[in-house]
Each structure stands twice: as C-alpha cells, then as structure tokens.
Amino acid sequence: MQVPYHRIPMDAPTTRLPRRFLGFLGPLVLTNLIQALGGTAITIYLGQLLGAQALAAAVSFFPLFMCCIAFVIGLGTGASVLVGQAWGARNPDKVRRVAGAVLVGGFALACGVAALGAAFIADLLRVLGTAAEVLPEAAAYARVLFLAMPVLFVHQLSAALLRGLGDTATPLRALVLASGLWMLLTPAFILGWLGLPRMGTVSAGWASLIGNTVAVAWLAWHLHDKDHLLATVARLGVPTGLFFITSSFADVLLLRLVNGHGWQATAAWGTVNQVMAYVQLPAMSIAIASSVFAAQAIGGNRPGEVAHVTRVGLGMNLVLTGGLAGLVALAAPWAAKLFTDDPAVVGLAATVLQITVWGSLAFGLASVFTGVMRASGIVRVPTIISLSCLAFLLVPLAYALQPLWGLKGIWTSYPLTYLCALLLQSAYFHFVWRRRAMQRLV
C-alpha cells in the first residue's frame, strides 16, 4: 500500500486540535450520513413501492445482519488504532503490515459467515418468530446479502484503515460510489427500468452487492497484502467485535419480543432503527475521531494531548448529538411518515422514537471514553463493562418492562442501559485508566 503523508503535521500544537478534529470529522460525518441516507432511501423504496410487508421482511433480517458484520467492525476498530499509532510514529512499514493482516483475516471471516448464513438463515428467522407472511421474502433478501458479505467486509476494513491514517476523504469517495449505485439500482430492479427484471424485496440486496463490489474494485490499489500482524489486530479488535456481536444478539432477542406484537410493530422497529442511525451518526463519528487522534498523540509521544482530545470529543457530543436528539424528538411523527403511510406503524414508531432518542447522548459520551482508552490498547475492561450492561441489563430490562408498558417498555431499556454504561465507563476512565502510563503499541 502506498502511504501518502497526511497534510497535517504530526507535531501540530494542541491548540490546533479542535480545527484538526473538525477537519477529520467533516468527511467522516458526511460518510456516515451518506451511508444512513442510503439505508433510508432503500427502506423508503421498499415501504412505498412494495408495501409495508416488504418493509417488514427486510428489517426482520437487520439484527442478524449486524451480528454477521460485528467482527468486521471490531477488526476495523483495532486496525484504525494500530495504523493511527504507526502513523503517529512515522512507521509506514507497520501500516502496510497491519493492512495486509486485516484484509486477509477479514476476507476469510466473511467467506465463512456467508456460507453459514446462507445455509441456515430461514431456520434462524423462523426461530425468531418472523411472521409467516414475510418469511419467504425475508429469507431470500438475507441470502443475497450473505453473498455480498466478502465485499462488504473488505470495503468496511479498507475504510477503517484509511481513517486510521487520518484520511476520511478516500472512504467518502468510495462510499459515494457504492451508495450511489445502491440507491440507483434498487428502484431500477424493483420497477424493471430499461428492461431489467423485477426482483421485489431482494432488489436492495443485489444493488448492495453490485455497489460494494464496484467500490472495492476502486479501492483495491490502496491496500496490498504484506506481512501479517493479525494477532495484534485481534487483541484490539476482537473485544470490540464481541461488543458488537453482543449488541446485535441483544437486538435479536428484543426483536423476538417485538415480533410478538405483529408485523406492524416489526415495521415500526425498522423505522426507528433507520432514524436512530442518524441520531447516533455524530456520536459514532466523534468516537472514531477521538480514538484516531488519541492514537496519533500516543504514537507521536504527546500524552498531554490525549486529555484535550477527550474534552473536545465530549464537548462535541453534547452539542452535536444532544442537539440532533432534541430535533428528532420534536419531529418524530414526520420522520416516521417518511417510511410508510400505515397509521399504526407511524404511531408506534413516533412514540418509541421519542423515548429512545435520548439514549444516543449517553451512548456518544460513553463511546468517547472507550475510544480514547482503546487508543492506548486498553480494551478488556471497557469491553467487559459494555458487554455486562448489554447482557445483564438491556435484555432483562426489556423483558421486565414489557409487561408493564408494552412496546414502550422494550425501547425504554435502551436509554437506561446506555446511561448505566456511561456512568461505569466514566468511573473507570477517571479513577483507573488516567493513572496508568500510556505506551505505544507499535
């Protein structure tokens, strides 16, 4: 991989950090925004062009899909920390070796996930209680997305590696290409434009496969297989991957509860998830930026800058994530109507959205703490905290509150869990992690 030197000098003074932060954050937020817009557009296509049952069929698979890509998120997180530290230490050879290890391991993992998922998806959906009316379409849609797993993994990992170098513009261009094709081809396959076959619900899956394949082909020249550092990447990435797996598995269990309320509740679940993607967008972007800037500061032997990174990340979350949460809470009914005209689905989605949206602020603040700690290689305890909250609080709360408040009780478990995680992560950060010496990992 040819490693272009970043335009920002590595010894830039701390006083310039907010400007550097925003320069990094802008393309990253735009990247996530485009990705979220793509998902929103596809959901609207399915709900408006094919009906609410097609919408329910697609969203029935979403938590399982997140389970499948959880490890790639973890590996990408670990890779961005390693290349960030190597970049801060001006060691491009290490960057090349990390890139090779991550891409080889990620592609192999994707092939295994694709094979297992395609074979057992129908049985899994049936166990989850997916409505019989939408089960065949949901299974067909899922199988196409499983075929796309290898290119999806490589695309995600390549973007994470480039962000670790401080480059958010190249992943943005790749995503524009992938999302543009995705949003263009989906209605083309649904409506049969230019003589194309009408594919129904699976149109979105085939469009995603084509779009990501083209984007990966465009990105291919950035990364080449070199020496392997998979063990080090896994040490950072696997715990994060376990967090996302647990989170996705918790969503699967909660979806089981939601499915019991009928397909309209399932469609509302998908609508809320789409809107929440936008609310959590700045939170996740700020967490990534905090991790990368902290890793570069540690790699460049500037430990004093890490505290400033943390303060800036927390402040931006209060302003950006908090402000967006307030706007979404006010506009919840109109946001829900974007996806379907079904009054029952709109009513359910708007009500629960006003409950869950505030959990994003706690989620964002906690993610800054975990991102900064991850930049120094400390992932075990923060991950245990997160996993414990998901395993012993989120799901039990949902099951306990559902008899009292119905669907509202299920969604109330999210903000309560995120708040608990924030308190625990903050306590560990201030009373344990800050007292330790920070060391380079590469």
Low-confidence stretches: 1-13, 222-230
SS content category: mainly alpha
Quickly count the helices: 16
Q: What Rg, in angstroms, do the CA atoms define? A: 21 Å
Query: Element order, helices and strands?
Result: HHHHHHHHHHHHHHHH
Largest sheet: none
Quick one: how many beta strands? 0
Percent helix range: over 70%
Oligomer: single chain
Strand percentage, roughly? under 5%
pLDDT average, as an integer?
A: 80
- Cα end-to-end separation: 18 Å
Cα shape: globular
Q: How many individual domains?
A: 1
Question: In words, what does this structure look like?
Answer:
The protein is mainly α and 442 residues long. Helix 2 crosses helix 5, helix 3 packs antiparallel against helix 4 and helix 6 crosses helix 8. The two termini are 18 Å apart. It has one domain. The longest helix is centred in the middle third of the chain and has 37 residues. The protein is 81% helix and 0% strand. It is built from 16 helices and no strands.
